[in-house]
Write a structure and sequence with these properties.
Helices cover 74% and strands 1% of the residues. By secondary structure, the chain is mainly alpha-helical. It has one domain.
Length: 486
Amino acid sequence: MMGTLSTFNPAELWPLLPELVMVTGTFALLVLDLFVSPRRNGIVHALGFVLLLAVAALCVAGCGGHGTVLNGMFVRDTLADLMKGGILLASALAFVYAWPFLRERGLYKGEITLLMLFATLGMMLLVSAGSLVMVYLGLEMLALSSYALVVTDRDSPVASEAGMKYFVLGALASGMLLFGMSLIYGATGTLDLAQINASAQGGGAHCDLLLAGTVFVVAGIAFKFGAAPFHMWLPDVYQGAATPITLFIGSAPKIAALGMALRLLDGGLSPVSDRWHVMVAALSALSLIVGNFAALMQTNLRRMLAYSTVSHVGFLLMGVAGGGAEGNAAALFYALIYAVTSAAAFGLITLMARKGFEADEIDDYKGLASRQPLMAALILGVMASLAGVPPFIGFFAKLTVIEGALNGGLLWLAIVGIICAVVGAFYYLRVIKVMYFDQPVEGAHPMLAHDEGGVKWLFMVNAGLLLVLSIFLQPLMAWCRSAFGA
């Protein structure tokens, strides 16, 4: 050990530059929050937003360079930089949406900003994991921060119940994942993902033990995605948490979960890909069916979006099940686009809500087009993109993962995806129908968009991106393909 320490070169840590800036800035804000009065705690939140944008710029620009450090525990490559850029920008969106919502209700505290930053740091570590240890470290940093964020409103019994369910089920899923990792370690004798791959490929692994570990790992990944049948926590958490927290949990972590899946499955367990591809395809089909048909019965907009998230996870896993560079690139593209779309979907609820009026029932939007035609048009665009209606970017995202499934020889899964996309269009179109063709409920709370803090303008940009990004479809897909050397 002494020999290892004596030859340590600090210059080797350059690939960790974004994470080092992130953790240094977060701890600096932690100290600053101790000295800032509650009336000025917006300073901490604003500086947290700036920190996210600065770290995103470091990732996108490739500052620090690529490489494998910390004895193979941390990997920085094009895939990691692309995912981190998406995670940081989605988190920055959540920061802006959160400020007026939480401040109006008296829920904002500096701890919320810090928890969101630590969760983001956990996601960054997760997508750069080169070892089972780093996977678990990043995952638990994300999970523990998320549990605390869900119970932001301590006086709300719904939030407390959601937080408790999330914690208990999350602990169960973490235990399953850890047990699976221990079996993989027992089968290969190493925690390093590259060495696990080499051991499994060279026949040095205990096959039965490795496959048993793979089953538990896939189950743990499915829970973190919110894939059926491991989606039990998702509707309650999405409805119980404050809307900006739901926005945060529902966008960036999906990119991180994909990163975890690709590192574990495609990176470490590719020699047994014929087995886990079948499991991922089954999870994809089940998520598509359960998510879409359960969403049809919802009257609460947040619960509807929760079940629709399950269906979107099904589409995302379709790309992973297809496999290969094209399938993985399609899944990455879908995860990035879904993060932007999900932010817009929950952002519209944040924008329309008031203290004492959460604007989360579908009937709350009756007749909105007659009162606020611009907002109704923007919401129409968000719902159309979620439904996969051309020319919105959501259509092209669904098309790419269906092509990925076809390229992987999964015709049956592609057919399931197409049928479920048609079914899913119904509940999104119901929101549009309510806005344009129904009369407002007499005595209902007047729905007016927030103008505070530029949130309305942010939502307009966020919703507009769902159409504008279609123009840049080919460059975006080429960028995603480059992460897999395609």
